Sequence to fold (578 residues):
Amino acid sequence: MKISQEEIKKIALLSRLEVKADHISTVEKELSDILSYVAELNELDLEGVEPMAHAVPLHNVFREDEEKPSLDHKLALSNAPEAEDGYFKVPRVVQE
Amino acid sequence: MSSKYETVIGLEVHTELKTNSKIFCGCTTEFGGSQNTHVCPVCLGLPGAMPVLNKKVVEYAIKVGLALNCEILQFNKFDRKNYYYPDLPKNYQTSQYDLPICLNGYLDIEVEGETKRIGITRIHMEEDAGKLVHSGSTISDSNSSNVDYNRTGVPLLEIVSEPDLRSGAEAKAYVEKLRSILQYLDVSDGRMEEGSLRCDANVSVRLRGTEKFGTRTETKNVNSLTGIQKAIEYEALRQAQVLEDGGTVYQETRTWDDAQGITLAMRKKDAEDDYRYFPEPDLVPIVISEEEIDEARKNLPELPDAKIARFISDYGLSVTDSTILTASRKTADYLDATVKAGADAKTVSNWMLGDLSKMINENGLTFAESKVSPENLAGMISLIEKGTISGKIAKKVIISMWESGKDAETIVKEEGLVQITDTGAIEEIVKQVIANNPQPVADFKGGNGKAIGFLVGQVMKESKGRANPGMVNELLQKFLND
Fold:
């Protein structure tokens, strides 16, 4: 199962990961190996088998509609790389 | 736009649900708190925090699904929709993808007296995103933005229509009807200005008579009912002009600028956005039993269409009046309560659509907050029917009722407004008016029948509006023709 360099670039962009040009062929080989390994699953006959929605055989885990205290405002912002006037401050969101 | 092109519209309506707490955590959903004070590790997407689904959201979704004639999926689940935008602290939105809670419904709308059925593709549950405040005047000239995550995690239903709408007016009627149903179900405020109901419009145009859809654009940021109609009409016209000029319509996201009355391009869509949906591992599937669905169906309130039909058949009201009086559940409940208190429905409807609506609107209230209670309105109507007061005096009485909160009988007594039905007393006034107005009397006797109107007016004025108008007319005719 081979993955193309184009696909790697696209996945890197979607994941917001930087893959250096001289590293792409390594990633290409590693990802292709992983995909080939997983591709063994494709050999199974899954005729009539429902897709699995969850790994744990549980359903209907609910909470009642009750308010709980929120985080202290200072604490909520304490991990923010940048904050301003009680907001999380983020860099420019659109590119020209 | 000429009749050469046909507009094809599908709408995505997002509605915030009226729960106390957020969809996956206990933070309050209250609107307008100071920034980032309604947040916790779950809705901030902090590592290790685990979401737990609010039961009420599922209940509300089932109600809406049933009211919109949908099939309820007895096995449904959440998925992650991945995209990078700082209004989502987790870099994905928890939503529903291939197994949403509701599928295949419809909503009937009335446009220009015709009923049209609009298909509902699906309804799914998801979380709302946060709010960005840009440092510049627009998003493109801002070097930074500030994020408030109070709204993040507020429960939303996304209601997706089929591309069955053909004009801005139809789209407006659809959203209006949908909003009314959501309010009847008491699951959403439906306030477009506050963003509790938001609408994205997918619009394309095609040559009339052709089957194939044109390239569509998605217009966002429409936050009023009239805005929906205007944005769609503008966008359809723009696309038709592009095609007429030999150009190409691009698949893109556009934003509605209400002040300028135009749509503006925001970003191009490269084929389908790549959201890389996958099942949400932190939430288990939802299984809904047949019994729960039946129970929910039994508990649905009477919806606008059923109410309109009942007002027409039981109350003898017109289609137009019934439609106006059922647009809001509070208005319809007021009518029902007044009729229950013993008043004739047609008379109640006239007072509600006339004097009472005026006072309610002037004070920015709803019928639920009317200062004239249904019982007091019924009491006043009964005084008119008994002949205690005339319809004209009633117009004064209703104002006093509004101002004082007292019932009609008390006001009529206190202000001495009882109608004069004593023939002798009215005769006295009639004779006096005839003596004081020789010219109109002569006109009437000379064959000008209309002159009597003036004389009736004079008698009513002399009696301070209290004389019975029918008797005044009768007595005037009698004396003038003698």
Observations:
- Residues 303-414 of chain B form one domain.
- The two ends of chain B are 68 Å apart (CA to CA).
- Chain B touches chain A through 53 residues (CB under 8 Å).
